[in-house]
Specification:
The chain is built from twelve helices and 33 strands. By secondary structure, it is α+β, with helices and mostly antiparallel strands. The protein has three domains: 3-165, OB fold (Dihydrolipoamide Acetyltransferase, E2P) (Beta Barrel), CATH 2.40.50; 183-188 and 367-517, CheA-289, Domain 4 (OB fold (Dihydrolipoamide Acetyltransferase, E2P), Beta Barrel), CATH 2.40.50.180; 197-363, Beta Barrel (OB fold (Dihydrolipoamide Acetyltransferase, E2P)), CATH 2.40.50.180.
């Protein structure tokens, strides 16, 4: 028991010291619904206030979600739900009793009553009440204790086995599932498609759409609350921010392009790009999508339109949607030649004297995993960026195909090819919502079949330290395969559930998708 636990339990027990004999066992008593229960102290790790949780799709209905307990992921279970009692919101008296029977689980109870010492003579079997009460989850009865005529002793081993029947089997296979990674999902057309297409991240600045090659984008992050000013810097340079213990110079494209200034909003993002051996954060109004653009739709910027000065920042123009949508491609190599950015990089290096460390941090791919973060409701999910073919807007109308697989919402025409589209909310058993402008289609290549999945919003591209990634708790067979890993970003108070795209579709669904695309 931790010191926090001891304090909580002592308070619950009103400070009474319990004299124990060799035949005395300690029990924690608590209230759930209208009943008083007890559990033997031995498997109880601690008793904590009910924490905030991350909801997990495809998990047992009794699971409230996952919580961060001092850097460890802890499943939180509703004991009321498990015992069939009516739902009730947690309040100040509610507690989570953390019990470890091979895997720590937190059980939410209405309140903890006391810690009591019970003599063996006061503990009876449940045979006497088995005819009138369901005793399947009970291991005994305690008579005349703590002012109660009878307290039921819950058998948490049976309760866990009933609610999480797959845990034991899944735990044995967990290492294999986690180690398998995303290799299959990350494979696409090999080198053949690279030469024929550009892979771009598009974003808006003052109503105009721009893009940067995705291989130059290290990550996309939100604007921090604090930006440190660089003395005597040009107006393009906003300052520097701290990004995982390194300094990152920030450049405002609005200022660089001579456009009207605008305060940052919730949609504003920082696109972190690789420039030479270092990195620069480019502040944009919002990030739109990841595009795969055929080279035939890309034209070199006409020489007469190229900007004068020490930076020719826009090198190409994409003509999309039959010429109705123009996207300007920015060259990060030309950005590096811009004097304002070079000056910012020089000042950051001079002030920190850690340029070599910064360069090593960015160039090392072994310490980080780059993921695309998207949202479904309030929860955040991530997929390896290499597994994402592209990200596109949801059209106003999907074409419904007769006899298509039940999971398919419809199909869209994606540059002349049929793309089956699945609502990821339905796939994960979450409530559906009405279509809106914030939704996006994330396109994966799953065992040779291109399929799009509708998500509520694409948030950012994020570099996650590998030490922050751990196997997800085993909650169900399907969840342990599809959501086998979690990124526990404790300092940011975030948990990302990492999806394995290769398991988003079963074999039967894949066959149906292949027939649609054919």
């Amino acid at each position: 028991m931790t010191s926090e636990t001891s304090t909580e339990v002592s308070a619950a027990a009103d400070g009474k010291v319990i004299a124990q004999s060799s035949d005395t066992r300690q029990y924690v008593t608590f209230v759930a619904g209208d009943e008083v229960f007890a559990v033997e102290m031995t498997p109880v790790q601690e008793i904590i206030r009910v924490p905030s949780v991350v909801r997990v799709p495809l998990s047992p209905p009794t699971l409230e979600g996952l919580a961060n307990l001092r850097g460890k992921v802890l499943p939180i279970v509703s004991l009321r739900r498990a015992l069939g009692y009516a739902e009730r919101e947690s309040d100040d008296a509610s507690r989570a009793v953390v019990i470890d029977l091979g895997q720590p689980l937190g059980f939410v109870v209405d309140r903890v009553a006391s810690v009591v010492g019970v003599e063996g003579s006061k503990i009876e079997g449940v045979e006497g009440i088995s005819g009138t009460v369901n005793t399947e989850l009970l291991s005994g009865l305690i008579k005349d204790i703590g002012g109660h005529a009878m307290v039921m002793v819950l058998n948490f081993e049976k309760l866990i086995a009933q609610e999480f029947a797959h845990i034991a089997a899944i735990s044995r296979a967990q290492g294999t599932v986690a180690a398998k990674g995303m290799a299959q999902a990350a494979t696409d057309d090999g080198g053949r498609a690279v030469d024929a297409e550009l892979h771009l991240v598009s974003f808006d600045v003052a109503g105009q759409e721009y893009a940067i090659a995705i291989e130059d984008v290290q990550e996309i992050v939100q604007i921090p609350e604090q930006i440190v000013q660089v003395p005597h810097a040009q107006s393009h340079v906003l300052g520097v921010m701290t990004l995982r213990n390194r300094l990152l110079p920030l450049v405002a494209l609005r200022r660089m392009f001579g456009l009207t200034e605008q305060d940052a909003s919730d949609q504003s993002r920082i696109v972190v790009v690789a420039i030479g051996g270092a990195s620069v954060g480019i502040v944009v109004d919002n990030v739109n999508e990841v595009l795969r653009v055929a080279r035939r739709d890309v034209e070199v910027m006409p020489a007469m339109l190229a900007r004068d000065g020490d930076m020719t920042d826009i090198t190409d123009i994409c003509r999309l949607d039959k010429g109705q949508r123009l996207v300007s491609i920015i060259s990060t190599n030309n950005l590096f030649r811009h004097s304002a950015i070079k000056e910012a990089l020089t000042k950051v290096s001079a002030n920190t004297d850690t340029s070599d460390d910064v360069r090593t941090s960015h160039d090392s791919t072994g310490d980080d995993e780059q993921v695309v973060v998207f949202r479904l409701g309030a929860e955040e999910f991530g997929v390896p960026i290499d597994s994402v073919q592209e990200i596109v807007r949801v059209p106003e109308k999907l074409t419904h195909v007769p006899k298509a697989p039940a999971s398919v919402e419809g199909v869209i025409n994606l540059r002349g090819s049929v793309l089956p589209v699945v609502d990821l909310r339905r796939r994960l058993g979450l409530p559906t919502i009405e279509r809106n402008d914030g939704q996006r289609i994330v396109v994966f290549l799953i065992r040779g079949v291109r399929t799009g999945f509708i998500v509520d919003a694409v948030a950012e591209v994020l570099k996650v330290p590998r030490q922050a990634i751990e196997p997800a708790p085993c909650l169900s067979a399907e969840q342990s395969t599809l959501l086998a890993r979690m990124a526990n970003l404790e300092k940011q108070k975030r948990m990302l559930q990492l999806i394995d795209p290769s398991h988003l579709l079963g074999e039967g669904e894949l066959s149906g998708m292949a027939a649609l695309t054919a």
